[in-house]
Amino acid sequence: MILGVLLLASSVTALPLAQSFSSSLKGFLGGKSKLTFDTKGSFKVLSLSDMHFGEGEEVTWGPEQDRNTSIAHANILDNERPNYVVFNGDLITGENVFASNATKYLDQLFAPTVARNIRFSSTHGNHDNSLAINHLEEIEYEQAHYPTLSYTRSDVGPKPFGCGNYWVPVYAKESDFVPAVIMWFFDSRSFVSGHPGGADGPTPPAANFHWVDEKTVPQYIKQQCNLMTLVWKVVPPALVFVHIPVQKADILAPLPSVGNHDDEPDPATQGFLNETYTGLDLPFWNALVEMDGGRGRVLAVTSGHDHGESWCARATASSGVPICFNGHSGYGGYVTEHSQVRNGRVFALNLGDLAKKVPVVRTWNSYENNTTNDEVLLGPDYMVPLS
Ligand SMILES: *[C@@H]1O[C@H](CO)[C@@H](O)[C@H](O)[C@H]1NC(C)=O
Ligand SMILES: *[C@@H]1O[C@H](CO)[C@@H](O)[C@H](O)[C@H]1NC(C)=O
Ligand SMILES: *[C@@H]1O[C@H](CO)[C@@H](O)[C@H](O)[C@H]1NC(C)=O
Ligand SMILES: *[C@@H]1O[C@H](CO)[C@@H](O)[C@H](O)[C@H]1NC(C)=O
Ligand SMILES: *[C@@H]1O[C@H](CO)[C@@H](O)[C@H](O)[C@H]1NC(C)=O
């Protein structure tokens, strides 16, 4: 109702109002350069997840596995030459590091991307919340030390364990006012106890949640989408990143999709507490599905967390929204049979693909051994929907 009144008002004084609402659109990039598609209409995003830096800092294999992770990233970056890198959670094995220098591992993690002058941002995982580190500390360190290249923000969500919720626009060209695509990033909270001595510490009650905050985030998504409609007349297609998969992923896991399926049946995924599914991840999921009135413009929702999963699937059960897994982009963390060659997931966005009635995106896995695999075009023709 309020929006209706504002729309009427905006037809009288269109420009000043649009400008004032632009400032409430959180993704407007004060002081940062605009992300734009190249002259061929392409914008490539590389998502890396589950690096688990700092896992063994006082044993020889620890620094060695972190160096291996950096080499893997360098190979994938040089092969793919992405325009943007997403670090999709579990950047650090927080329960194994010292609080005094934990954030320093972010410098090692970002180094290959920074050396290539590529812009980036992060989501955070269950291992990034521990007795030694938390999501807010990682976000503040990244913002303070990478003010030019990092686009990570904290717009909304409970601090300090669940505040990495934000979005970043990508424009077809520099002079455009309306973005061609929005990258959305969400914080699935959770906490891993324990410390280098091996003993478990208590999980703070404020961290004992395993889903995107249902109190603040759905409301934020709705508010930002309403403002986009008001200011831009459109909610642009969305590419979504969140560390822990939504529970809907379990339903899609048995579908015959290309990519690794080593972790099935999945361990307790998003929305579980005390080994019971709470349903509390659904307000976030429903807000994604309803982003633009349910017109199917969510290109993909991509998660890490399950290192042995690197597939994409969509079905009626996911309201037609493709759900993707990232695979394993680090030498830290557990390894499954088919995740020994580390990979990242690439999204090759293209303006022609985005202009389709139902926008589509091409995606594949890119491996540290300089090969790619599992390419699919995510969209209405991808897979036969299961009911
Ligand atoms: C690092 O990579 C080398 C070369 O692939 C391998 O031999 C070694 O086992 C790896 N080390 C660790 C700790 O992962
Ligand atoms: C943090 O301190 C520990 C203990 O001194 C050391 O082993 C480790 O290499 C340090 N980590 C970083 C990233 O500086
Ligand atoms: C989960 O288990 C803990 C410990 O038994 C209990 O204190 C807590 O209330 C439980 N939470 C829910 C939502 O059941
Ligand atoms: C690289 O690794 C992938 C994934 O394990 C594998 O399918 C492929 O055969 C490997 N390629 C080479 C050249 O080793
Ligand atoms: C992948 O390419 C890098 C950079 O050229 C090279 O150092 C590395 O040996 C290659 N790996 C494989 C498995 O071919």
TrEMBL record:
CDD domains associated with the record: MPP_Dcr2
Q: Which domain of life is it from?
A: Eukaryota
Give the GO molecular function terms: heme binding; hydrolase activity, acting on ester bonds
Q: Which InterPro entries match?
A: Calcineurin-like_PHP (IPR004843), Cyt_B5_heme-BS (IPR018506), Metallo-depent_PP-like (IPR029052)
Q: Where is the Calcineurin-like phosphoesterase domain?
A: 44-151
Record PROSITE patterns: CYTOCHROME_B5_1
Q: Short name of one Pfam family for this protein?
A: Metallophos
Segments forming a coiled coil = none
What SUPFAM superfamilies does this protein's entry cite? Metallo-dependent phosphatases (SSF56300)
Any single GO CC term annotated in Swiss-Prot or TrEMBL for this entry: cytoplasm
* UniProt protein name: Metallo-dependent phosphatase-like protein
Source organism of this protein record: Mycena belliarum
User: Which taxonomic lineage does the organism of this UniProt entry have?
Assistant: Eukaryota, Fungi, Dikarya, Basidiomycota, Agaricomycotina
